[in-house]
Amino acid sequence: MQINSKSSRRDFLRQLSVITATAALSGLSLETLSAKKPKFRKIASNDKVNLACIGIGNRANEIIKELYKTGHCNIVALCDTDLGAPHTLEIINKFPGIPQFQDFRKMFDKMGSKIDAVVIGTPDFSHFPATMLSMSLGKHVYVEKPMAHSFREVELMMQAAKRYGVVTQMGNQGHSDANYFQFKAWKEAGIIKDVTAITAHMNNSRRWHKFDSNIKSMPPAEPVPSTLDWDTWLGTEQFHDYNKDYINGQWRCWYDFGMGALGDWGAHIMDTAHQFLELGLPTEINMLYAKGHNPFFFPYSSTIQFKFPPRNNMPACDITWYDGLDNLPPVPAGYGNVELDPTIPPPSNGQIVPSKLNPGKIIYSKELTFKGGSHGSTLSIIPEEKAKEMASKLPVVPKSPSNHFENFLLACKGQEKTRSPFEIAGPLSQVFCLGVIAQQLNAKLVFNPNTKKFTNNDLANKLLVGTEPRKEWMYFYKL
Question: What is the pTM of this model?
Fold first, then answer.
């Protein structure tokens, strides 16, 4: 490559980055994107965390406002591939004068030294590259659930978090609320013990329920909105022609972009059981029911059984997941009220239907049965007669010292530890990845948690790795 006499070292690096096979990131310096020893700004207890926002519309809008409301952060950069679209304008108007970017790579190239932490509220498939680059640059990361789109991506994110020593938090916000502290206290007191089966369920309408399961291809090409950087939106994913059914939450419908109902709500329902029962990874994932199965988007209804082996003096445990309007799980005698619980947030695209089961769980142990909702809602012992008998034996449950957003920012300042760091949220997210593979293949899968490979399905092993990223995005898998 020839360099003219007017080229600066920085320009040289930028030119080099275009042709370097591993980076291939046009317009960005390799220095910026190759922090081998990231440096952290020590944030004083009375100082604020300088927070950059990657994704600012829809759910990300709500997350940013919650983080800002804690009083522990300054918003220093806004990044979204669709700046100027109606769903991004609220945050843009709330923080006037804050630098705006459509590409997080360019944001870091221009402002890396001014950022302490990032919040990532983008579609499931695009969590990985932004998270990996942020961590490699020494930035603390809050990323929405599920952590990533493939088993391999989650694995690499866990490794990178350990390697770079940053603070991490997955955005399953109920993990800092009452259910977290109750489950922990009841487990430590021996109230929750010898759990052998869990039913987890989310039976509300999903976006793909309006789709035709007989479609033969992905949606047709449509004109790209003038405000949208479609190529950057696609990120690591192989090229797709734009269609409105890919954006603004519709991405959750498609195997190529989202993680379906399981990835969306599983982290709000199974999280405490997975952590405190030390479930780890399953040995079998059995697809028991898949109504409307097709190669493109998630089934209308799914029943998935996860079999977890014995561990640490705890018995083997099965989790059976139910989703779909017509796929309500069986409930035990004495279950009680199934009406609407106003404390449980509704799905983002509609209201919870009364007379249907609330999203939640039923936990069966050898002695007791527990009924619980989603997010931070607490467990109760059923039937009611048994709950009254056990009332005097229940331990005091401490109150949460901070919500999920404050917990993350205080951890960035060294005052708390995050409750859903990648070492805890990662294996949970990998369970969802395994479940989605079973949905996609509509098959029974046998998995070895030690080798982290399927033993009975070669195609499933390829899906563990995920789609081959586009050449210019391979860099993020090497950080």
Answer: 0.90
Collapsing DSSP to helix, strand or coil, 83 comes out as coil
Are both 216 and 345 inside the same structural domain? yes
Residue 397 sits at the vertex; the CA angle it makes with 339 and 420, to the nearest 5 degrees, is 80
DSSP secondary structure letter of residue 21: T
CB 160 within 8 A of CB 135: yes
Exposure class string for 273-301: b at 16+ Cβ within 10 A, else e: bbbbbebbbbbbbbbebbebbbebbbbbb
Q: Checking DSSP bridges between strand 49-54 and strand 117-120, what pairing results, if any?
A: parallel
333 domain-assigned: yes
Helix (H, G, I), strand (E, B) or coil at 434: helix
Q: How far apart are CA 433 and CA 439, in angstroms?
A: 10
Q: What is the CATH number of the domain that holds 138?
A: 3.40.50.720
Same domain, 15 and 92: no
| d(C-alpha 276, C-alpha 12), whole Å | 52
218 & 81 share domain: no
Distance CA 167, CA 274 (A): 21
Q: How many domains does the chain have?
A: 3
Per-residue pLDDT of the chain (479 residues; tens, 9 = 90+): 333 333 344 433 433 343 343 344 444 554 445 545 567 888 999 999 999 999 999 999 999 999 999 999 999 999 999 998 999 999 999 999 999 999 999 999 999 999 999 999 999 999 999 999 999 999 999 999 999 999 999 999 999 999 999 999 999 999 999 999 999 999 999 999 999 999 999 999 999 999 998 888 999 999 999 999 999 999 999 999 999 999 999 999 999 999 999 999 999 999 999 999 999 999 999 999 999 999 999 999 999 999 999 999 999 999 999 999 999 999 998 998 765 455 556 555 444 444 478 899 999 999 999 999 999 999 999 999 999 999 999 999 999 999 999 999 999 999 999 999 999 999 999 999 999 999 999 999 999 999 999 999 999 999 999 999 999 999 999 99
DSSP-assigned letters across all residues of 232-281: HHHTTSPP----GGGSTTGGGGBTTT--HHHHHHHHHHSHHHHHHTT--S
Please tell me whether residues 198 and 266 are part of one structural domain. yes
Q: Which domain holds residue 57?
A: 39-171+471-478
Could you tell me where the DSSP H helices lie in 297-395? 384-390
Q: What is the DSSP string of 447-471?
A: EETTTTEESS-HHHHHHHH-SPPPG
Is residue 198 domain-shared with residue 160, that is, in the same domain? no
CA distance 372 to 101: 42
